[in-house]
């Protein structure tokens, strides 16, 4: 009774399409105090929900809570104990959180009902070109940053599995200064495309917030 299998009825499929379809299903059929994103191949720590629920301020405003996490390989072997120690995902500067998409990871994120209610729905069939690259976690995070709060838990509450098939596998950790320079030079086109995608998501959010359809 606690598990529901939800089918994506549209002709568009993939991680982001499926997440947005599921979000709309929940929004139209259920009402809970809090909601949490989850990936099928990651592992939650035993007290993840308890710790994050205590982090919410209990205000009526829209809120999102995210946490630090550890990374593991396909065989559950620990790679890095803390993403925050490597990447610095705890950023008090909301502008950095808003405009850069490397800090709030959906598998660590939860949000309250106020945020679910105020985030505009997306039309998969109409906006499929945007949604193909529109990460659900950052879409929700932008609205929380703009209209409410984003709170951080320093505990590593998720074991994030690194493999060749997850959406964020292109992120690189522990880059030395030399490797950063090499990546900037040799991977310029990829870097430019990544930033273009980030800006496109921000523009989409702003247009949805203003009640306009994306261009």
What can you tell me about this protein's structure?
This protein is α+β, with helices and mostly antiparallel strands and 215 residues long. 41% of the residues lie in helices and 16% in strands. It contains nine helices and six strands, in the order αββαββααβαααβαα. It has helices at residues 15-29, 48-55, 83-87, 94-99, 113-118, 128-131, 136-147, 177-186, 188-209, and strands spanning 34-36, 43-44, 63-72, 78-80, 110-112, 149-161. Strands 1, 2, 3, 4, 5 and 6 form a six-stranded mixed beta sheet that branches. A hairpin with a 5-residue loop joins strand 3 and strand 4 (78-80). Helix 7 (136-147) packs across helix 9. The termini are far apart. It comes from Streptococcus pneumoniae. This is WciP.
Strand and helix order? HEEHEEHHEHHHEHH
Beta-strand share of residues: 15-25%
Rg from Cα: 17 Å
In the predicted model, the low-confidence regions spanning at least 5 consecutive residues are none
Number of domains: 1
The number of helices is 9
Number of strands: 6
Averaged pLDDT: 84
Largest sheet: 6 strands, mixed
Secondary structure category: alpha+beta
Distance between the termini: 42 Å
Second rung of CATH, namely the architecture: Alpha-Beta Complex
- For the record, the CATH class is Alpha Beta
Helix content: 40-55%
CATH topology title: Spore Coat Polysaccharide Biosynthesis Protein SpsA, Chain A
Q: Indicate the overall shape.
A: globular
């Amino acid at each position: 009774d606690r598990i529901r299998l939800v089918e994506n009825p549209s002709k568009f499929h993939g991680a982001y399409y499926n997440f947005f379809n599921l979000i709309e299903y929940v929004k139209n059929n259920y009402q809970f105090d809090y909601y949490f994103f989850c990936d099928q191949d990651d592992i939650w720590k035993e007290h993840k929900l308890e710790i994050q629920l205590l982090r919410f301020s209990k205000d009526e405003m829209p809120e999102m809570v995210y946490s630090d996490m550890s990374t593991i390989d396909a065989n559950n072997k620990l790679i890095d104990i803390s993403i925050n120690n490597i990447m610095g995902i705890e950023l008090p500067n909301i502008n950095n959180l808003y405009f850069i998409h490397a800090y709030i990871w959906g598998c660590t994120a939860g949000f309250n009902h106020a945020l679910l209610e105020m985030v505009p729905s997306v039309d998969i069939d109409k906006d499929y070109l945007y949604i193909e690259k529109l990460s659900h976690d950052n879409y929700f995070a932008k609205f929380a940053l703009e209209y409410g709060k984003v709170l951080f838990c320093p505990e590593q509450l998720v074991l994030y599995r690194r493999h060749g098939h997850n959406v964020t596998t292109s992120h690189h950790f522990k880059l030395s200064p030399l490797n950063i320079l090499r990546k900037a030079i040799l991977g310029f086109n990829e870097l430019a495309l990544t930033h273009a995608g980030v800006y496109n998501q921000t523009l989409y959010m702003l247009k949805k917030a203003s009640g306009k359809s994306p261009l």
